[in-house]
Amino acid sequence: MKYFATTLLCVMLISCFVCIQSCKKEEKVAATTSADIPAAVLSKIKAQGFSTRDVKKVEGGYVVEGDIFLSTAALAEQPVSPTMRVAQSEQYRTHNVITGLPRVITISVTNLPVGYGAAADVAIARFNALGLQLTFSRVASGGDVNIQYASLGSGVLGRSAGFPTSSGNPPSPILLNADDNALGSNPEQSYLASVITHEIGHTIGFRHTDYFNRGYSCSIGSNEGDGGVGAVPIPGSPTAEDPNSWMLACIGTGVTRLFNANDVSALDYLYGSRMLNPLRDGIYRLVNVNSRKVLDVSEESSNNGAVVHQWEWWNGNNQKWYLTYQGEGYYKLTAYHSGKVLDVIGGSPDNGAVLHQWDWWNIHNQHWRLLRNADGSYGLVNRKSGKVADVKDGSHSNGAVVQQWDWWAANHQRWFIEKL
């Protein structure tokens, strides 16, 4: 596991087996301790909502939380966001974000092996596939963000240039260590792309998802925040730990980390249409991208607990859903024939929990966010679990149960929502 820097030994519990592996941080732990940093500087770092643990003095500023560079000028800025608090496990952003949307951010790669440019292209494609108002483009040199080589020491993978400036521009450069004692000259492409995607995330204003509990992804450390103004929470992001988020502080060696459903929702909130309710209230049918069958209440039942599955479209009232916006980015989906709503059985947080219909109680397992995809389809994200409506086993058959599952952008998790 890498925390994108210094090698440490840590004990991890994985699938009930205890194993000891080498862990690396996103930036090498400081040779100096936080006690060597002036108290006034630590106070400013804390006031910006960052951890004061293992702060490192570098040229022009300080490195905090392993891979985040804060310039002296950035520390002098006064937070201006009106709603601020220390984030716990939800997605959250910095005070400044990229402005001037729609906007193209150019990325260049210099003084790095050829494979690094290819991995940067993969990282750029991951962002651009989301259909955001903020897009990225590779240029030969002089990009808004330059990814460049730096020999940062054994085990140090890289370091971001920080966060957007007060004028809404991305910082530069991103430093990556291609030495043999770090990433090396030819790391696996998808893994390297995940590292680059993470560092680009910082440049557009995203903090570590597990800032408040670094032990979640790193198996070391604990709470690193204790009040102060903290970070700006993104509405609708989860209130429990968020597995596999692209902005978790640590990543295992060779691991590919794509955007999960909450990552995509957070990116869409900041840089998408800026509309939490992309569809007007009304009657719709939901067509699965994989099977072309529709979301259907079994046997036209009007009973609580009737299973929701997929079926061929025949214009039945049990195949029509009234979408009603509830605020904060969430809808209720009401079966037209029964007046009952789409609900996760027992409010379960687990993969494989079946979707059924139930009386409206206005509880979180009955709230659904529409996760916009580049092809015009949507993922249906449950507010309580953070999981999406998924056709079991990717089936094409009539009667295949619709369950909830972790988002991985599969066709059987995406739905065209068509107005009737």
Automatic annotation (TrEMBL):
Keyword Acetylation: no
GO molecular function, one term: metallopeptidase activity
SUPFAM superfamilies given in the database record: Metalloproteases ('zincins'), catalytic domain (SSF55486), Ricin B-like lectins (SSF50370)
Ricin B lectin domain ranges (all copies): 281-418
Pfam families: Peptidase_M57, RicinB_lectin_2
Signal peptide annotation: 1-20
Keyword tags: Hydrolase, Metalloprotease, Protease, Signal
Protein name: M57 family metalloprotease
Organism field: Chitinophaga nivalis
